Every structure is written in structure tokens, then in C-alpha cells.
Amino acid sequence: IRAGAGVRAADTSATDPAGALVASATTDQYSAMYRAIWLFDTSAIASGDTVSSATLSLWGTGKITTLGSPDLHIVASTPASNSSLSQTDYTQTGGTSFGSVTMANFDGTNTIYTDITLNADGQAAVSKGTGARSKFGGKTSWDLNNSFGGVWGNGLISSFEVRHADQADTTNDPKLVVVHAVAASANHWLLMGV
């Protein structure tokens, strides 16, 4: 299921998992694995600017831990389109963690954002310049590391439930905050003697 092709894509849902795993009726097998993809318009950041920090924030609407408590990792994503998802985009999420949050520290109370600070790799993934779209994904640590750490049970689930940009307003949309500045320029001096 981890290496398989996608079988579902949802790009109009207000709420869906940012990462999840669902156990099947067959011992130690799984019926569903969820990944998320988020795109942000970062064209306002000049191509020459230097990014000093970046934080991706998700509005949690719930969490399920009956299967266990994985971490949620932010990774790269490369969907085929900037305006819609297809089921083949399931395979278009990266294998390097840009930052993470534990299940315990993920707020699923539908009252506050959970901030995930992006590391140097995540900062480097911020796209800059005209038409730029910064593309990120979400997946559980079990998915990222190919190592299950929970206790299998028929129908059990672990899930990070979040708001997506397709809800009615923008109040609880996923958000990306990037601190950046114009890169320092070097002075050039010409010395001449006679």
C-alpha cells in the first residue's frame, strides 16, 4: 500500500487527513494510507531573497490514535497540476522530512493552529519569484520511514485530521509563513595607482 498507486484524490474537501493509516481485517495488513498535498502561492518572494525561516501551520479538527501515535511529517510534493489533484499524485510526495509534529503535540480540538517549523531542507523548498508555487505534502512517520510502530487491530486508525483550503472561508486554511530578506550584495572597489 505504501508503494502502490493512488486510488483516490480529493481536492474539494474542507476536512481530510494530513496523514493516516487504517488497518484492514487481515492481520498486519492495511486498507488505506492517506497523504496530503498543499500548494502555496509564494510569488511575492523575490527570486534573489534569502529565506531565514518558514513555518507551515495546520488547523487540526481531530486526531485518531486507536492504531498508535505516529508523527506527522512535512515533505516535498510534485503534483502534476497546480490547480487539481489526481490519484496518481499519491506517489508524488517526498522521502525527506522538512519538519514534524508528534501526535501528542498536534492540536486536534478545532480551536488552534499547530505550527510545524521547517528545517533547512524545508526552507530550501520554498519557491521564489514570478509564478512561484511552494509545494509541500504530509505523511505519517510510519509512511515516511517504512516502519510501523503501532499495534495492529482490525479497523483501527491513526489520523491527523485538518482543514484544507476548500472550506467555505480562509479563516482556518493551511498557511505558510516565510521570513525572508533581500540577499546582501557585495561592494566592489576598483583601485588604481599612477
How does this model look, in words?
The protein is mainly β. 5% of the residues lie in helices and 38% in strands. It has 2 helices and 9 strands, in the order ββββββαβαββ. It has helices at residues 120-124, 141-145; strands at residues 15-23, 30-41, 49-65, 72-76, 99-101, 113-117, 133-140, 157-163, 175-182. Strands 1, 2, 3, 4, 5, 6, 7, 8 and 9 form a 9-stranded antiparallel beta sheet that branches. Strand 1 and strand 2 (30-41) form a beta hairpin. The chain is elongated, with a radius of gyration of 19 Å.
TL;DR of this structure?
This protein is mainly beta. It is 5% helix and 38% strand.
Descriptive tags:
194 residues; mainly beta; nine-stranded antiparallel beta sheet; 2 helices; 5% helix
